[in-house]
């Protein structure tokens, strides 16, 4: 069956999705409320934590298709498969993965954000939304929310609702949009300087029991996290380093315990290393 014939034989949202997929735009269904479906029992109601929406494709171990941007596809056989039958039957909207199509969407959520874009950004294709506009540029970049009041950037590892073809010509992604996701480093809070002992491995201003209690509390804090795991891990690392990062008492065993606790909550080794390095940078270590 050819794709045009297939498109004529399916209704509603799936018909739009197949047309977009035929143009090379990876698509997925959204349920009411603009949320992705959990496309397998393990991901029902995004029970697996929605990790593909925050990290790399394949982070979730459920059978394909997964959910959120990781489920987006251009394959008509996948879109019309049994696994997708119920999601498309109950789809409230069609979404797409901008980064997978080589695009970036600047999501302007209110009139003030739209006014800012018109005064600041190069013109490109625009699509009206319920409260604002989507500005679509050619080129992919990392995604980030709340880059300024009422403005989100949706591209790689993100999805955007499809609201029609829009008006205007898609132009190349400008540097000023790429710069929106670059955050200025937070000011470094001063930390009292503590002399490093000649032999290392022993804290000169705290007892070993104090150090052990601090590591245990940090591990417990990470283990107890149910939301905002990234922020919790970073905060725990920051707390340990702010007390013991300059005195030479932290050992590889201590960091391994902290990293193991973070990885047990779903953090990758790379994210642990990055969080540790960022905490050291924040403290000027």
Précis, in short:
The protein has ten helices and ten strands.
Quaternary state reads: single chain
Low-confidence stretches: 1-9, 49-59, 185-201
Which structural class should the secondary elements be placed in? Answer: alpha+beta
Strand content: 5-15%
| Continuous helix count | 10
**Main beta-sheet annotation:** 6 strands, mixed
* Helix content bin: 25-40%
Alpha carbon gap, first and last residue: 63 Å
- What's the gyration radius in Å? 23 Å
Q: Based on DSSP secondary structure assignment, what is the total number of beta strands?
A: 10
- Kindly report the average pLDDT value: 79
Write down the overall geometry: globular
H/E series: HHEEHHEEHEEEEEEHHHHH
Overall description:
The protein has 285 residues and is α+β, with helices and mostly antiparallel strands. Helix content is 36%, strand content 14%. Strands 4, 5, 6, 7, 8 and 10 form a six-stranded mixed sheet that branches. The protein has a four-stranded antiparallel sheet with strand order 2-1-3-9. Strand 7 and strand 8 form a beta hairpin. It starts with a helix and ends with a helix. 34% of the residues are buried. The N terminus is likely disordered.
Please describe the structure with a list of short key phrases separated by commas or semicolons.
285 residues, alpha+beta, 6-stranded mixed sheet, 4-stranded antiparallel sheet, 10 helices, 10 strands, 14% strand, disordered N terminus
Ordered list of secondary-structure elements with their pairings:
Blueprint: H1 3-8, H2 12-22, E1 27-31, E2 35-36, H3 76-79, H4 82-89, E3 93-96, E4 103-108, H5 111-120, E5 125-128, E6 133-138, E7 144-148, E8 151-154, E9 160-161, E10 171-172, H6 175-178, H7 208-223, H8 229-244, H9 252-264, H10 269-282
Parallel strand pairs: 6-10
Antiparallel strand pairs: 1-2, 1-3, 3-9, 4-6, 4-8, 5-6, 7-8
Helix pairs in contact: 7-8, 7-9, 8-10
């Amino acid at each position: 069956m050819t794709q045009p014939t297939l498109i004529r034989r399916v209704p509603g949202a799936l018909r739009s999705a197949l047309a977009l997929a035929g143009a090379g735009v990876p698509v997925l269904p959204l349920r009411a409320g603009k949320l992705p479906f959990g496309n397998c029992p393990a991901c029902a109601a995004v029970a697996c934590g929605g990790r593909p929406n925050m990290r790399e494709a394949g982070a979730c171990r459920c059978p394909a298709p997964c959910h959120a941007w990781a489920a987006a596809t251009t394959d008509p056989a996948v879109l019309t498969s049994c696994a997708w039958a119920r999601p498309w039957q109950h789809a409230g909207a069609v979404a797409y993965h901008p980064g997978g199509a080589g695009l970036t969407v600047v999501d302007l959520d209110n009139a003030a954000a739209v006014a800012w874009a018109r005064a600041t950004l190069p013109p490109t294709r625009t699509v009206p939304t319920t409260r604002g506009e989507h500005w679509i540029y050619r080129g992919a970049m990392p995604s980030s929310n709340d880059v300024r009041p009422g403005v989100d950037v949706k591209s790689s590892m993100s999805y955007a609702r499809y609201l029609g073809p829009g008006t205007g010509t898609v132009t190349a992604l400008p540097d000023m949009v790429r710069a929106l996701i670059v955050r200025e480093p937070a000011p470094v809070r001063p930390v009292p300087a503590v002399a490093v002992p000649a032999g290392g491995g022993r804290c000169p201003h705290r007892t070993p029991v104090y150090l052990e209690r601090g590591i245990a509390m940090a591990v417990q804090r990470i283990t107890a996290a149910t939301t905002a795991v990234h922020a919790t891990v970073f905060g725990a690392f920051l707390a340990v380093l702010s007390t013991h990062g300059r005195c030479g008492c932290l050992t590889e065993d201590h960091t391994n315990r902290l990293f193991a606790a973070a990885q047990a909550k779903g953090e990758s080794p790379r994210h642990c290393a990055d969080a540790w390095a960022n905490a050291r940078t924040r403290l000027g270590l």
